[in-house]
Amino acid sequence: MTTLTPDHDTETRHDTGTRHDTGTGTGTASEPAAKSPAAPAKRGAARGQADGMAVAAFVLGLVGTLVANVVLGPCALVLGALALARNTTRRFRAVLGMVLGAVDLIILATLATADGTLSWTIGG
Question: For the chain, first and last CA: distance in Å?
Fold first, then answer.
């Protein structure tokens, strides 16, 4: 007798010694129940990736205001937009990353028109 306990279920199943081939696509009625916990895990992983993109957009936008705004600004804009498109739970951080990415590009345009360079220094 084999006792299987899915996640928080107390269901007891008995092994009858029969084998089911799950690779052919024809399975038993209990097969969809075995696959159902995987579906929320995939959604959770996608949500985690979107949250990571939101944080990365914020960090890249923040760092881009100080250095390499020509590269980090557009990266922050793209990552923030992707995070919002994937329904992140950190919407404010994704929007803030996009705003900082836009500020990076505004700083770049201002510096390029003011003194013809793509860099800036403090106090000099």
Answer: 80
